[in-house]
């Protein structure tokens, strides 16, 4: 299928083009163009993929409903983030931080990052899926240390080290699973193919599969930021340039959980549908929620706060998978990605305006930066599950599934964690809204920032910026907000259909 | 065939223990290069007989063996040695746990892997029963090295050793699609290079008094 090849190769073309150009603006335009083109291709492939499977490249690549759903989400978020990156770095270019060589590194890594995530999602061969997943680590590590500042290099180093070691365990799990599949009589084709694996899944020996699944969950779970393997995440998310944070948090984590959800039905089928693999997901999900809730209470860095929210929401999604609610898990994935993109966009605006990431130095944000201010307050409200937004609906749905399955303990921990996050994050948001900017001099004795932190916080005036940027920024805030509000009250029919089709794949019920 | 494969697997585990026991970073890098040679030989011994039968199989085998040699025994060690020279780190390893205790730990890890390996018999037609224990040992020793290191370069070596362990299991169990073999090799190569580059950068930014000189030889004298 030629469409499949086009989807895989478009980002690669963008990568080379960005690496060859010598003009920062042109490079940013290439990033936007290639991701928008990718979006068009994916949308063209979407109906056929949901209706049935598209395969290509001798069976090594395939798009089914599950991958199509994630693919559409990844590429849509990436396209919007590319537009945001264009606006963000144009502002940076005024201050000379974004020169041509930085732009080329950014453009090439950005497109390569998109390409590697797309390959993760369209690979039918789990070996290729692993290779692409490791490639996402490499390309995004380059994006994290774009500025070459000390903290950024440190964060990139930790990210690279922890995720590479983690994902090596995922490779071991992949190999063990394939070894188990090879032992099954009549496994003719390559045991690395996912379709083949799921075909022979009921006949696999349970013990090797259990060992393999533990390695797979730890490996890909590291990349997904599930606690206790999440330690790289807050550093990488906060040190990366904001457009990069948005895609790291909005889509990269989804891709890692997507890999886990691919192996979930296989492990369940091999262990006789006794809920062994699901139980593992519940434990990791709850651990992530609890750990994230504890850190959200004490966090003052706005981007780290959002990063811990990612840990929490990845935990919620893993929990939902574990409770057996694949459809609400996938719905929550969509809501979280859209919301995280919105909040990072606004956080970027705040950081550029105030010149700091410390929320204690941001006061009166609704007056000082109206667009980003309103955006982040509404975004945080959505993120913590305030009624009216779609995240509230998906969390409610997950609760309902949990109660139906009589998993009361898990539901109780989930509700408790979500309540702590609700109060803590709301507190942070209200603090930023209240108190006019005049009170910015915080008292160190009262737990405020230290003197040396304050001394390098010269708040530069809002950049003049060209009016074209403002034209771009309004839709970037308004569009995600509208999506969150609309899907909070009404789910469109096509979305419900694709959710159902994708959930069937995770449940192992797809043909 | 399995006797030769067994010997190679035992050599792999022996090198693991040597890496844990030696106190010099350069010796660790060279030992990991030697492991690369052992791995390439292992691929040849394990897959040679079946691969020789078809032209396609030969090409695949040659690509994997040569690629493994080139990446694991030449490029990565050379790159790491250069990173070691460029950075100002001391040549001795600086572990949290002393080398003697580490050797005991490594011995225990090897023992545990053999026990685990017997617990989960990996069905593989042409593989040796030692493959899973040896691979797991190497993986665990590598993980131990990454954890038990104050200096970052030792962590990179640990990652490399851990990946060797996974590689062994992969070669015995699967190893049939060239895209996957080459892809994994390339990923590891780029990962190690990036780690080494970032390591040198971190090391340079850690010394704020240094003027921004690009000449590494000047820094080495300090």
Structure in a nutshell:
The complex is a heterodimer of chains A (511) and B (222). By secondary structure, chain A is an all-alpha fold. Helix content of chain A is 77%, strand content 1%.
Describe the structure.
The complex is a heterodimer of chains A (511) and B (222). Chain A has 20 helices and 2 strands. Chain A has 511 residues and is an all-alpha fold. Chain A has one domain. A two-stranded antiparallel ribbon of chain A has the order 1-2. In chain A, a hairpin with a 4-residue loop joins strand 1 (54-56) and strand 2. Chain A is globular, with a radius of gyration of 22 Å. Residues 437-466 of chain A have low confidence and may be disordered. Chain B has helices at 2-21, 25-51, 55-86, 99-119, 131-147, 152-173, 178-205, 216-220. Chain B has one domain. Chain B is 77% helix and 0% strand. Chain A binds chain B through residues 60, 125, 127-128, 130-131, 134-135, 137-138, 141-142, 145, 148, 150, 153-154, 156-157, 160-161, 164-165, 168-169, 171-172, 175-176, 178-180, 182-183, 190-192, 207-208, 211, and chain B through 119-120, 122-125, 135, 139, 143, 146, 152, 155-156, 158-159, 162-163, 165-166, 169-170, 172-174, 176-177, 179-180, 183-184, 186-187, 190-191, 194-195, 198-199, 201-202, 205-206.
